Fold each of these.
Amino acid sequence: MQILDRRLNPSGRSLPNRQRFLRRAKSLVQEAVRDASAKRDIRSADEGGEVSIPLHGIREPSFHHGSGGMRDHVLPGNKEYREGDEIQRPQGGGGGGGSEGSPEGGGEDAFRFVLTREEFLSLFLDDLELPDLAKRRLVEGADPAWHRAGYSVAGTPSNLSLARTMRNSLSRRIALKRPKPEAVAALEAEIAELEGQPGSEERIAALKAELAVQLKRSQRIPWIDPIDVRYRRFEPVPRPVARAVMFCLMDVSGSMTEDMKDLAKRFYTLLYIFLQRRYKHVDIVFIRHTHEAAEVDEQTFFHSRETGGTLVSTALEEMRKVVADRYPPTDWNIYAAQASDGDNAAGDSQRTARLLIDEVLPACQYYAYIEVGRDGEHGMPGFPRGPTDLWRTYEQLVSAGAPMAMKKVRNRRDIFPVFRELFAKRGLLEEAKA
Amino acid sequence: MNAPVSTPGLLYEGADWDFSTLMRIHDACEEVAVRDLGLDFYPNRIEIISAEQMLDAYASTGLPLFYRHWSFGKQFAQHEALYRKGLRGLAYEIVINSDPCLSYVMEENTATLQALVIAHAAFGHNHFFKNNRIFREWTDAKGILDYLEFAKGYIAECEDKYGEIAVERVLDSAHALMNYGVHRHHRRTIDLRSEEQRVRERRAHDERMYNVLWSTLPERASQAIGADEVEKRRAMLQLPQENVLYFLEKSAPRLAPWQREVIRIVRNVAQYFHPQRQTKMMNEGCATYVHHRILNTLHAEGRLSDGALLEALHSHTSVIMQPDFDDPRYSGINPYALGFAMMEDIERICREPTEEDREWFPDFAGSGDPMPTLRYGWSEFRDESFILQFLSPHLMRKMKFFHLKDDAAQPVLRVDAMHDERGYRRLRRALAKQYDPAWMDPDIQVVDVDLSGDRRLILEHRVQDGRLLEEQEARQVLRHLANLWSYDVLLREVDPATGASLREHAVSPPR
């Protein structure tokens, strides 16, 4: 009898099965993830959680009897029945005839299980990407690719090149005339044969001398010498990396209500999660503006409060400055996302448009504008509310062919779909449109 | 309550345990199992696992190492979700029919639960595995672990060579037919240990063999083939064949050797589990009876405290709970309940028989020690025959069994038999039938291949009592079958009495 403690065995033995299962059910799970994410908070989108997928898509079929025909049931716990009694057929399978178990366990039509944060995000962000990530540059500090590059005399044992080492050893042994083992054996055999035969003493002495020389030589000349040893050599080859920077521009002026700011922040949170997970070499620059703009850190951007007037051009000006200082457009893929309620000080629109056209857009690969508004905002009766100043301004730019996208977000529910639309893989998007 | 006083005879006190406690418990159980019950078992190996590992084991049908497939991941996710929500507990143990016999016990169990589990699995199930005829004839306890190791490695290798998707397609299809991957009637000796060598020999043999399916002789008109020829062809292909997977492995024309091997692995696993399906009730009854006897004996000898026995009895009674048919908790006859009740009933008949028992069971009524009778029963029967042989009128009355006839053509159900003088035998036969896989599973066989035509595979479902197949799923399974066969497949549902075809399903392989 043996007792073994298996508790310390590596856990996650079923992980490969789980991965196979997720791959198998990918389209179903992805749909479920989208549904789930539309309903929930962005912060918890970052946490994974339970999803439910329809069972029929992952069913394992088997032959079994359908309904109809004659069946026998033997049941325990008889109370009042006598032989020959007739009983009404129970409806819906419950009660008397319920000894039939469905093989899938209770005939559930949905299958619920829990996804980890990693699984949730990778499924959620699976078909999103930054558009037009084209400019690639060699960057210091990026992981190099290792390529085979000849042989070296130093290295780790695992890189030992046996063939090359033995080749060197062989040529050295030939060059230095190390006797072959067969030659030594032949000499020894000859000596043994002559031994004891009269008149062969001289010959034996000569052979013995020869043998001694040979033996000494093979002792002096090693089979493998350290100078024979060769290792496979690898050389680091720098890989070009696409470096990208994302500018997050957010309006925090007084006209933005807390709700609107909340929506904008949620949008950026999602953007932030997306970039962090998918792109190693993405810098993120946070700029917020009222009537003046400032570059801030992540913490301030998401968590601090401020209010004031609205000058959108200040943010663009700030972005232009940062680009000029740190992100030369020749080396960097530049992206920007701007969130605002669409209000702008009268007279600033012209300046904003000009800045955008002349300075910002030429440097950018992609520019996204998200206009946040209150839920169910239709304007007051008698004051039909048309498009906002900024929306009108940008609309003109877009119709003139500027590389930018515009979306309105009125509600938390909109954030995920809008985000998906903005960053869906181009091919997919065009397919969807077609 | 008084503070527990250390008593010299006790195996352990309190709920905590360590390895030496388990060792003492095991040795004490072994002593009782050998001395009082006369059990004969494989050497034991007890492995302690965590809850997560238990979930792992669940997902791969309880086997310690198993090949990879998405369906196991699905089961794991399902069990895990239920477990995490607290909707379902985990089993206390899992036991593997191998030599040495592996029992997995959970680390969360208290000392008493461990004692219960060891007595139940390491002695009860272990004895059953080693002695039951079906297990002896159909499974190879010595070879199973090595074979699983080989299967896991082989399938992983195939995944590397041919891609996960390709392997998955074969496994999916083979799994759908798993219940038809078993030889039910004629027995073969099973030796899983040499499987690996035989893989190679089989391939070499196949290559030398002339495969009738590849015959490319000019086609003859179908009607020209006489009945003689049909018989010859069927004999050549070993038809009719109830083991569909076996037939595919041997005769499917377009499978690659590795695909045949994968089918063979699924088939061997199905065969390994087949006895468990046929003896579920007896096996659990045997194990439950054994742990009950062992723990009570240990208590009587002062080696188990009163508290421990009460704790064990608490678990014991919840395991053997049998809700009545009209109880919302009812989900079929609990194999633990019926199994244990039958074993106890046999004990009663041996020790204190009534007149009725003497009449029904003259062979062993009043024989005194129940163990010889029980051991005989455990070794020579399966659920169906065990019920036919040993279910007593006394127990039928106690369980208040009754037999309902449900004819879809009639508007009402009819009580056909109940626990009275007129009903005992009919009731017992009806109950036994419920435990007969040959009756519960649709009877489907490969009957012919249209060799002169389009190589269509023809199967037959011999319809019993008018129970036709569930159509949608049957078509899905047939699609899997066509996938392996690579040509059209036709399933005829036939009335065995008249030979009339009741319904046909034809499926073409995916292009």
Amino acid sequence: MALTTAPGPTRRGNGSVRPRANRGAGRNRHGEGLAGYVFLSPWLLGLMAVTAIPMLLSLYLSFTNYDILTPLSEVEWVGLANYERMFTSDPSYWHAVQVTLKFALIAVPLKLAAALGVALLLNRAWRGVGLFRSLFYLPSLLGGSVALAIVWVNMFNRDGAFNSFLALVGIEGKPWVNDPEWALQTLMVLAIWQFGAPMVIFLAGLKQVPTELYEAASVDGASKFSQFWNVTLPMLSPVIFFNLVLETINGFQGFTAAFVLSNGTGGPVDSTLMYTLNLYISGFTNLEMGYASAMAWVFLLAIALITVIFFSTGRFWVHYSDGER
Amino acid sequence: MHPATPPTAGAPARQAHRTPATRRGFLRRFLATAVTVPLLLGGAVACGSDDEAGSDGKVELSIFWWGGDARAQLTEQALELYTKKNPNVTFKKTWQANQGYFDKLATLTAGGSPPDIFQIDDNFLTEYAARNTTLDLNEYKDNGKLDVSKFPESLWQYGVVDGKLAGLAAGENTQGLVYNKSLLTKNGLPEPTTGQSWEEHIAWAEEVSKKAKVPGTMDASAVDKAFWVWLRQQGKDLYKGNDLGFTVEDVTKWFELWKGARDRGATPTPDVIHEGNATDITKQLVVTGKAATSWVWVNQMPELKKNTNDDLGVVAYPGDPSAQWARAAMYWSVFRGSKHKDVAVDVLNFLVNDQEVVKLLGTDRGLPSNLDLRRVVSDDVTDPAMKLSIEVETKLAETFGPAPQVPIKGHSKVRAELTKAAEEAQYGRLTPAQAAEQFYAACKSAIA
């Protein structure tokens, strides 16, 4: 995962990211290369078997009418028909695209903001701050688990814990997870609540900001906000960039919670029909695996495109203090 | 579900960093894979069939079904009985909840290792039969190895797809409106009866809502089996040949009927209706106390009863009960590529025609298909809920109309679309007419 480590905060300045530059010229490159591949082989074989081959197969299938039940030897080549259908005659496809975009556009920035905010609060030498760090990190350990989603659904039912709490302060709640206007927002809150992973990365980033910079700033009479804006944010920008890329990709791939909340249907009334859930339903419930494969490839290309956009705009706002890149 | 995420999470990153050199390699590898993989898999499938028992005569059959713990216990006992009588045959048993069952079955089939025997229902029978995944049982029926002579004619025929006997009815059921008897008695309300009209049912439900303070009836507009019965009462059907058996006006009328019911307060609120639409059998609204009735199958009554302390009753769906039919609650099918077809069919025959086993299994998969044995079982039954469901269904069987054709390919999509459109109307986001238009268009493309 070259992408995830390159801009990371811990590699700054020590040159270990560019091993080739340090190589002596007289070494036997070939023998070393071979040894490298040998050491790599367990990973490489795994990659081929569980990622590369299935991916390529799915690319092939995306041009066929494969329906899972028919043997692969009997599938028919349908050319671009699956892609054509996706873009021209499948309203639920575009609906799923909208739901996913809405989810990612709202949940990802809020999650990052929450992570950064809490990281700033926890980046102090208060007593017991370690405990709080662990507590805030806890939800993300639960990850995309099914159990968590089930708890969430029960909490945000009409007679769930959240409404009981609202009733205490005299507000009448809604059937959040069973209301098409609110079900997706409930999922967003779940995603935002799991801000622990980016928070820990932000914390690590904050620790790396040299204290001299703050000292110099306060000598110059900069306010706390001005210090945050002119020192913390620029120094943290590689970490923000890293978190943004990662969380965006995660956001687009939200599946488990939507699947559990809607019993695998994307309901109520398709309000939680995330892209991956729609893909899953097409492939496994409607048995249109060829079509689902086409969806997967469009999805892959879309995420790749978004990542490329991030990287190409990154140079305008991501600041690497050692001048790298 | 969860493991699906990590492998792809890294993929776009790799994609973004791909250099021109690897892209060329990628193309080459793709072409190679595209050509060889299907050949390999095709070859594997082709040489995998028609190989009878091993040299020692031992046969292990894999069998897969959905259901709860109770069903699992009964089925395991039944299979043990078979092994006792045929010591050379053993079983590899797999079972799971209904949710996800068909995903798993499809995946197993795709992986080239489907179970020899599997449970299936009319939502998917045609999908599997049309793709020749199921063994045609006609041959065994004709040579007497599979005996359906004691079955009601329309019941075994409900397993016929394109002239092939694709599934053997494991039991019979029919639509049943289950109601909370205790609640009605407590509030001095009359019980619903078989044969009351839809209007009468809704008026009755309105009355229940007012007096008992519990919504009188679950909104059935998203319940495909209710829509189906209603259509048959209008002289229509869900499917006709390879097309839909109804018009968009029929759907509008159906959705309007229920909009009327909601406006009169006969049903729960839309979010509760959604809960009822989305849930499995153990959390039907009549069980959770959120409605006085639920739209289920008659044979599910005992299962519902296990989840509530209230007394339950069951009648036919409203309207003329002759629109209901002897439906195969579920089928047993044999994989066409099974290495032990003859043995598998013999197991099927055993499960439906052996008195000891049928008595053991009871009504868990519906009323026993074999009428002689059904009588034996109903004489023996002690569980009052089961007794009642047998009585009601036996009574209804006297007026059953002819069975409709087995749902066609795309049926599971049609059901999902019905739920979606009905809920659009329930939440008031679309008018009944708009929702009907949407449903009809979606159905057309689902079965195309």
